């Protein structure tokens, strides 16, 4: 069952963009070596990216301030990065120092890419801002060359309930969470959905799941962030998929 939300999609995307515009200047400093992005989610995303990357074209969809773009570039890839937030794209451009092609683009609309123009796609914690995945997933599928791959990370459907969440696991609901990064506080809203909804969306776009990973804190991460990551030892937070085009 879908729990109705009073926010229309255009307003929701505008709020998402404005929140990330506000966070852009502090995002790299607070997430690159932070507990959740830097030490929990990103290592698993990168572990599922097939190597070698030298000479391949990779899209980073929802590139934020450029951490993944920079990593892909350092691996030898030709990178296209897109993000809804103009301020985040500017941070990515500064971080990547003229390397790559970094653009403002909305995943709710068809991507500005030619068919079969990329070898791989990463999409880190971005799709959950959209209720409808048909457009982004079909854009991903159409832009992939034969043999290409997609690595997508999402909030885990079995993650602990948020404070204002009304529905249960089987409900599709727009939930909210408030973050404070270096003194900048924002409230972001994103969709929670059951696992079957996610898998059906992949299948409808002509994609098959090749690998699934559920990040768990490493001993190093736990030693560094015991208060933040200790409660996640036995509780999932993120889920990462590697997808291929269906035969």
Q: Characteristics of this structure?
A:
9 strands, Rossmann fold, 27% strand, alpha/beta, 247 residues, 7-stranded mixed beta sheet, single chain, two-stranded antiparallel ribbon
Q: Summed up, what is this model?
A:
Helix content is 34%, strand content 27%. It is built from eight helices and nine strands.
Q: How many domain modules?
A: 1
CATH fold-level topology: Rossmann fold
The span between the termini is 32 Å
Low-pLDDT windows of residues: none
Share of helix among residues?
25-40%
Radius of gyration of CA atoms, rounded to a whole number = 17 Å
Please characterize this protein's 3D structure.
- With 247 residues, this protein is an alpha/beta fold.
- The chain has one domain (18-44, 54-158, 193-245): Rossmann fold (3-Layer(aba) Sandwich).
- The protein is 34% helix and 27% strand.
- It has eight helices and nine strands.
- It has helices spanning 9-31, 37-48, 67-74, 86-96, 134-143, 195-204, 219-224, 226-229, and strands at 57-61, 78-83, 101-104, 118-124, 144-155, 173-181, 184-192, 207-213, 238-245.
- Helix 1 (9-31) packs parallel to helix 4.
- The chain is globular, with a radius of gyration of 17 Å.
- The two termini are 32 Å apart.
Topology:
Layout: H1 9-31, H2 37-48, E1 57-61, H3 67-74, E2 78-83, H4 86-96, E3 101-104, E4 118-124, H5 134-143, E5 144-155, E6 173-181, E7 184-192, H6 195-204, E8 207-213, H7 219-224, H8 226-229, E9 238-245
Parallel strand pairs: 1-2, 1-4, 2-3, 4-5
Antiparallel strand pairs: 5-9, 6-7, 8-9
Helix pairs in contact: 1-4
């Amino acid at each position: 069952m879908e729990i109705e939300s009073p926010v229309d999609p255009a307003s929701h995307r505008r709020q998402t963009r404005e929140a990330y515009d506000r966070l852009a200047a502090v995002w790299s400093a607070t997430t690159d070596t932070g507990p959740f992005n830097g030490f929990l989610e990103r290592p698993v995303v990168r572990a599922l990216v097939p190597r070698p990357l030298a000479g391949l074209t990779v899209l980073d969809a929802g590139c934020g301030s450029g951490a993944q773009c920079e990593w892909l570039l350092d691996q030898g890839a030709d990178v296209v990065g897109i993000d809804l937030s103009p301020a985040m794209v500017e941070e990515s451009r500064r971080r990547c120092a003229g390397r790559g092609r970094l653009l403002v683009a909305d995943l709710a609309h068809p991507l500005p890419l030619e068919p079969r123009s990329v070898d791989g796609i990463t999409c880190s914690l971005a799709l959950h801002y959209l209720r409808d995945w048909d457009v982004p997933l079909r854009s991903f599928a159409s832009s992939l060359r034969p043999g290409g791959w997609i690595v997508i990370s999402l909030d885990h459907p079995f993650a602990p309930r948020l404070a204002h969440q009304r529905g249960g696991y089987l409900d599709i609901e727009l939930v909210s969470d408030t973050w404070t990064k270096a003194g900048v506080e924002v409230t972001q809203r994103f969709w929670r959905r059951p696992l079957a909804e996610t898998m059906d969306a992949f299948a409808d776009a002509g994609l098959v799941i090749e690998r699934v990973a559920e990040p768990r804190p490493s001993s190093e991460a736990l030693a560094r962030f015991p208060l933040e990551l200790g409660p996640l030892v036995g509780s999932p937070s993120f889920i990462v998929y590697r997808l291929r085009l269906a035969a």
